[in-house]
Amino acid sequence: RSSDLATTSSISNKKIKESPNGEIYLSTNVNLYKFNLTNEKWELKFESPAGIKDFGFSPDGNSIYLAETQKFYIAKNGGTLVPITSLWTHSAEFLCLGNNNNFIRQTSGANGQIWKFNDDGTQLREILVTRCCQNLFFHKKSSTLFDLGTRDYKCSNDFGETWNTKYYPTNLRFTNFVELNDGNILTEYLGKFYISRDNRSEEHTSE
User: pTM (2 decimals)?
Assistant: First the structure.
């Protein structure tokens, strides 16, 4: 079943992502579509009865993970999305690194949690109680996982098994990082840009 979304203006909560093997997916508030390069149409892959919050891919692109308001799904090797476990969340964010180091942030009101799960979708377990309105970031060069959003931030050097709390200097507050090709980290706050100087996201920044 295909659908031309070009003339559809009523869809909301749109997220478009490319999988590691080059396939293009689009989620709306209740549907997940895959773009067919042959006929240039969107094919409906999944209809959510509860609302799609986010989706992500395994690093090899063979699995798709999807979080809706009440359930966590996985599809393997192009198959159908099947529910793995129940959950309840107002929002979701995936960060999938592979080797059983995959993460989903979920929120309920002002509260938030980070959960970790295996590549096959099993062993979903809570690893950090945090706040809403935060962002996950993984710094590849230092293999450091971050929970960003407030002046005090959490970071982990063992893929979420243990966490440390750190503070930015002079009342700075960063919500997103970008890792540059040399491993330095670029970020922005109130119209000013800052960059790390030691290939790690420590508190060494400059405008």
Answer: 0.84
> In 77-199, at which residue ranges do the beta strands (DSSP E only) sit?
82-86, 92-96, 102-108, 111-117, 125-131, 135-139, 144-148, 152-156, 164-167, 178-179, 185-189, 192-195
Other Cβ atoms less than 10 A from the Cβ of 21: the count is 9
The span from the CA of 54 to the CA of 76, in Å, is 17
Cα–Cα distance measured from residue 169 to residue 193, given in angstroms and rounded to the nearest whole number: 14
pLDDT per residue as tens digits for the range 142-157? 999 999 987 888 999 9
Return the amino acid letter for 69.
T
Per-residue pLDDT at 56 exceeds 50: yes
Q: Is residue 46 over pLDDT 90?
A: yes
> What is the DSSP pairing of strand 71-76 with strand 82-86?
antiparallel
Contacting residues for 185 by C-beta, under 8 A, at least 6 apart: 139, 177, 178, 179, 195, 196, 200, 201
> Is residue 158 helix, strand or coil?
coil
